[in-house]
Amino acid sequence: MNFIIKNVIMKVKKQLRGKLLIQRNKKVVSMHKKGMDTQDILKTMDIGIETFRNIMKKEGISTLNERKEKQLKKITGYYKKGKSIQEIAGLMNLSDERTRQILKKTSFYKGFNTLTKEEKKKFNKNIRHDVLSGLSIEKLSKKYGYSIKTLENKLGKLKLPTPYTVARLKRDKSILADVKSGKSPQRIADKYKIRRTYVFQLCVKNGYRHKLIRRNLIKKLSKAGYSVEYIAEQLNIGLEGVRYHLRVIKKEKNRNYLTGKK
Questions:
Q1: In the predicted model, is pLDDT for residue 193 greater than 80?
Q2: Tell me, what's the pLDDT at 35?
Q3: How many beta carbons lie within 10 A of that of residue 32, not counting itself?
Q4: What span, in angstroms and rounded, lies between the C-alpha atoms of 171 and 120?
Q5: Cβ atoms 192, 175 nearer than 8 A
Q6: What's the farthest any 2 CA atoms get from each other in the chain?
Q7: Cα dihedral sign, 172-175-179-180
Q8: Contact 199, 185 (CB under 8 A)
Q9: In 3D, which of 87, 61, 58 has the Cα closest to residue 74?
């Protein structure tokens, strides 16, 4: 018997709560239609912003302010005319990512997932070419209108090296070219703003013996009759360094003469 009474009481309470909510919602809507400020409505009715938005959604009333509505209309208008996200972002003075976020709210926006197979292939081909040609992640972000994080994820899926890796490989090639030209590890490190140990590690990794390369260059220049000062200037090393290598070359020459080696 008590169980039945409890159920009846619960049902009555639910009905009353439902009626009270309907009345409250009607008041909120009427206040909003009269032009009352949102913050004043929240204080008067003692509700949160999310509750207010949900009530407005149920009634089919937009909670966007006039500025946002105008912005959305302009952006959608540009997009329908066929302008790219980058162009729209420039016209609206917004970031590419923010423009995309606004367009995502509309039903006609075509993101990467809505592209056709041919369009996706073209996109992948273009981005592959740009990455391997050495474009930085910032430039790729501006060109394709994606955030840096999104781009990094896409490159990972395409199994492409990141622009940082491509840039590092290019830098390593130029470092090795400087090593071959006989420049000192310290000068190379200063030029590329890296540690000298990195230059040595790179030489070992690629099978280069830095001192032998420089010594052979000094030997060639010395045989050609160039002065110590000229050699030092050409190889971008100190005078004492050139003299040291010349002494070693002389010792090797004398040793080879005594042992009969050519």
A1: yes
A2: 76
A3: 18
A4: 31
A5: yes
A6: 122
A7: positive
A8: yes
A9: 87
Q: Which of 102, 38, 26 is nearest to 65 (CA)?
A: 38
Q: How far apart are CA 147 and CA 140, in angstroms?
A: 9
Nearest Cα neighbor of 143 from 104, 92, 94, 86 is 86
Structural contact between residues 235 and 211, judged by C-beta atoms closer than 8 angstroms:
no
Q: Is 44 helix (H, G, I), strand (E, B) or coil?
A: helix
Strands (E), the chain: none
- Supply the angle between the helices 137-144 and 163-180 in degrees, to the nearest 10: 140
Tokens, residue 11 = 């049902």
- pTM equals 0.38
Six-digit token pair at 187?
């000068």
Q: What are the distances in angstroms from CA 76 to CA 14, 79, 88, 93, 138?
A: 44, 5, 9, 15, 26
| Distance from C-alpha of 79 to C-alpha of 71, rounded to nearest angstrom | 12
For residues 235 and 183, the answer to whether their CB atoms sit within 8 Å is yes
d(CA 240, CA 137): 44
Torsion of CA 39, 42, 43, 47, to 10 degrees: -150
In whole angstroms, what is the distance from residue 239 CA to residue 229 CA? 6
All structural domains of the chain with their residue ranges: 2-59, 66-104, 112-160, 166-259
Q: Band of the pLDDT at 66, cuts 50, 70, 90? A: low
Only one residue has tokens 């039903």, namely: 107
Interval 215-248: pLDDT, tens: 777 888 888 888 888 888 877 777 888 888 788 8
